[in-house]
User: Fold this.
Amino acid sequence: MASLKLGIFTTLMGMGGIFLVLIILSLVTMLAARLIDKSRQPHENSAHQEAAVKAVPMAPAPAAAIPAADGGLSPKTVAAIMGAISAASGGAAFKIMSIHRIGSINTPWTSASNGNIINNRQQYL
Assistant:
């Protein structure tokens, strides 16, 4: 009976200590995140204002003037990609010179993984 009480006491103290450490760690992480956000806000606002001032709208080129790329990308697709990159970068002005597909890298690990997937699916046929 004494060993059962000792085991329960040890378990509760260990779990309590772990949860206490996790709570302290989460509080420290939240505090650090707030401090980082506060330190970034003035810089981000000024960066967005500078980018808005520097951004000069470009006149759209006629569709006939832009030939389709080697990969067969239409001018609309290229414009959509450029718009997505501009939106993701926060409005920074980028000049895209070319867009083309690159081949996938076929390493021995990817080949082995693909083989395992195919073999596993063969079991269900």
